Amino acid sequence: MMPFSGVLASRFGCRVVYSIATLVILLGFLCFVAYIMEGSMLDWSGILLTSHSMISSNQAGLGYTVFAVAMTTGRLLGDRIISAFGRSRVFSFSALIASFGFTVVVLGANLTSMMCGFFLIGAGLSNIVPILFTASGQQTVMPSALAVASVSTIGYSGILLGPALIGLLAQVTTLSFAFGIVTILSFSLPLCVRFISFSNK
């Protein structure tokens, strides 16, 4: 049986196969990063707060609550925001907000600033993954269903592997350092927006 890449090459040409690999892997990687950021909030935000001695253990879920409220609100308003400003602008601004929020959380000056950081992360991440899924479905060099499945598979591995990798890194160094690495990764989102073609349809 001819391998998948061979089938694509015979149907679309070698240049398209290269474009498929580049585009889908990029979209999948960005989803992977976004889900790592989300997973870090789900599994580690409470421990980060208590490790800074800013909150008692029975209130450790406050940070995730702020994050979840911001994400839910952003997700509900996402269609209206995208219709008003376009996917490219929303993605760029959202990515910057989320990265800035992580920076605020890592610096951890006080409880109020960290809560603001959690809110910014939730608001920023709320529409990033849906926009990336839409972009993978709208590209024209690969069947939409296959592209979305590939991107989602790569992306969802971030929410599965991310928290474990953060925990491993935190054990070797510190949790703040591990969050710092996630912060650096988060800046790949706004930096890579120039390589993605967004449609507002």
TrEMBL record:
Transmembrane segments: 12-37, 57-78, 90-109, 115-133, 145-169, 175-196
Pfam families for the chain: MFS_1 (PF07690)
Domain of life per record: Bacteria
InterPro entries: MFS, MFS_dom, MFS_trans_sf, MFS_Transporter
Gene3D superfamilies with a match to the protein in the record: MFS general substrate transporter like domains
Alphabetized UniProt keyword annotations: Membrane, Transmembrane, Transmembrane helix
Main subcellular location of this protein, as a coarse class: membrane
Membrane topology field: Multi-pass membrane protein
Location of this chain's protein in the cell: Membrane
CC per GO annotation: membrane
Domain Major facilitator superfamily (MFS) profile: 23-201
One GO MF term: transmembrane transporter activity
Protein name, as recorded: Putative tranport protein
Taxonomic source organism: Photobacterium marinum
